[in-house]
Amino acid sequence: MKTEKITCNACLAHAEKDVRFEAREIEYSENDVVVKVACGGICGSDIHYYQHGRAGMSILKHPMVIGHEFVGVISKVPAGSELKVGQTVAVNPSCPCNQCEMCLSGHQNLCSSMRFMGSAQFNPHVNGGFSQFVVVKP
User: Fold this and answer.
1) How many C-beta atoms lie closer than 10 Å to residue 90's C-beta?
2) What pLDDT, on the 0 to 100 scale, is given for residue 5?
3) pTM score, two decimals?
4) Which of 87, 89, 107, 136 is the one with CA 20 to 30 A from 40?
């Protein structure tokens, strides 16, 4: 599958009291949706990553784009998608596995290995939405 790359600025938490606004490269495929982020809300977990380098048991092990509450405008969609370029969206930050028993039975909200954008719960961490562009699955 062919992939493309785009360079954009993002807000990354590196460690306690170490959050940086820096350029990063993101990669996307023809099956992904690319969202140009318009704004995001700072959540308690974002503050904890800054203050303590962790949010509860989710400890930063490497730099991660923070933010899981964000909205934007679609800038790229897969062929045949019901989504449209220019459409305003609120992004659901949950990332179910789509392989466990709960996901396969249509209950992705109860996924046994749910990941969340902007969370250091798992390693590698899942980058969040405090970036000029974000790649999401349709």
Assistant:
1) 10
2) 96
3) 0.92
4) 107
